[in-house]
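Risk register update: the risk of archive-format incompatibility is retired. Evidence:
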Amino acid sequence: MARGSVDMNFLFTLAELQRLVRAYADKQAARYGITRAQWAVLAKIERAEGLKQSELAEQMEMQPITLTRLIDRLCDNDWIERRGDETDRRVNRLYLRKGARPLLGKLSGLRSELTATALEGINPADAHRLLAQLEAIKENVRNAIQNTPVEPARKEPRYG
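Archived output:
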């Protein structure tokens, strides 16, 4: 267990955990010839088929051009397809293709492996409690973002 106060360690530990999980997921996803970013796109589309490409970019906090490149690769692999919107021809909606289903099944198993590895040695009740606590923390931060007034940037004094 890390020594020191929660104030000193919480954010650092959370960021380090996120970095490590991403690195591990990247390494493991490569077994299936896919990147973690591509996996994330497939998972989002699986949960909400017909999502607009612009909505997906916003949800993933990704620049539209970056997402477009990911989607291009996924389309080239026949895992997803773009379909025009019936009411707005400027809009692309995203759908899974038949070939993505077996891959998503394998990735579901991989997600379970990653979770089991991360939670090794933690009993299920504690894991559920941890998840609930993380959800509460997420909600606290979300509320803080929504309730914080936007102040104009103050110019910091420069020295030298």
